[in-house]
Amino acid sequence: MRASVMMSSGVEVGGLSSIGMGAEEPSVGISAAFRADTHEMKLDLGLGSYRTEDLQPYVLNVVNKAEKLMLERCEDKEYLPIEGLAAFNKATAELLFGADSAVIQQQRVATVQGISGTGSLRLAAALIHRHFPASKILLSSPTWGNHPNILNDARLPWSEYRYYDPETVGLDFQGMISDIKAAPEGSFVLLHGCAHNPTGIDPTPEQWEIIADVIQEKKHIPLFDVVYQGYASGRVEADASSVRLFAARGMELLVAQSYSKNMGLYAERIGAINVVCSSPDSAKRVKSQLKRLARAMYSNPPVHGARIVANVVGIQIFSVSGKRSWEENMRKKWYVYMTKDGKNGLNWSISSQV
Ligand SMILES: Cc1ncc(COP(=O)(O)O)c(C=O)c1O
């Protein structure tokens, strides 16, 4: 017999058994199909994670070193503050904007540790929904499959701007610009900082300047998703150039970061949301609002991944040579990840895909 509950509205509805089946996440289906396939040349493109030559999970050496150090220090398991680990927040904002950048020097960045890239985007979406409920978000067509999910759950309306041109296997730059121009003034524009997923096509530096011009003219606010810092060029600094270009113009912007990919810390769920504001005072207010949202969603973030990143990026225990080895690792392992000989079926001579 089905239980029934009386809602306060007085409408009688079914109990928990009335909940229908949720749609399966598409990438789960791809991985299942991969496991079932017996072809010896098969490649799993369902999940983006490092693998060894034998297709086994791989942990970066710098991560192993940082964890060893953390064990030796016998670090505690106290709650972190709502905004996360201070050393992590400092390191992550500096990696993104540059320690000497005006936005860091002038204390105009509100950084809050997030639950990796997804959770940081979700926090950004919650902030936008709470303070700009009528705003619209523009997404590239195509984009990472979870972007629409995140925005839908945050009750944010979105539409698409043209991005991929199948004719040229490149960027539909004119389409992108005219769609961003046509959006209502003050919209949020979601941009992939580098290594656009799923196309692998990034604007050139000149195109980024024009994108920034249009966004500035229309008083839009960019929301960058930076998950692959280091993957596009093999250099973490160079891969932040799109974000840095916008920040150097004095624009307000939001940037969600993740260390799932570039440090292989998938299950640690470590990332951040950074909001570049027009003044230090505004940054303080924005941070206080992000903390209110985080407190209600998950109270405070996990510590382990934050310490790993702070140890690798922040304290620079591995110094310049350590960073170089991290970048080297990223380049090599990504290469292996794509295929054994580093090639796939695309025509690289006509494509600017990374
Ligand atoms: C473009 C993009 N954004 C965000 C994410 C979120 O990654 P995570 O939540 O694991 O940090 C991914 C993961 O594949 C991605 O490709």
From TrEMBL:
Instruction: State the EC number(s).
Output: 2.6.1.1
Q: Does the keyword Transferase apply?
A: yes
Main enzyme class: transferase
Q: Which CDD domains match?
A: AAT_like
Pfam families named among the record's database cross-references: Aminotran_1_2
Q: Which GO terms describe its molecular function?
A: L-aspartate:2-oxoglutarate aminotransferase activity; pyridoxal phosphate binding
User: From the record, what ranges are coiled-coil?
Assistant: none
Q: Which cofactor does it need?
A: pyridoxal 5'-phosphate
Any single GO BP term: amino acid metabolic process
Q: Which ranges carry the Aminotransferase class I/classII large domain?
A: 41-332
Keyword annotations from UniProtKB, A to Z: Aminotransferase, Pyridoxal phosphate, Transferase
Reactions listed under catalytic activity: L-aspartate + 2-oxoglutarate = oxaloacetate + L-glutamate
The subunit field of the Swiss-Prot or TrEMBL record says: Homodimer.
Please give the family membership noted in the entry: Belongs to the class-I pyridoxal-phosphate-dependent aminotransferase family.
* PANTHER family xrefs: ASPARTATE AMINOTRANSFERASE (PTHR11879), ASPARTATE AMINOTRANSFERASE, CYTOPLASMIC (PTHR11879:SF46)
Q: What else is known?
A: In eukaryotes there are cytoplasmic, mitochondrial and chloroplastic isozymes.
Listed name of the protein:
Aspartate aminotransferase
Native source organism of the sequence: Sesamum angolense
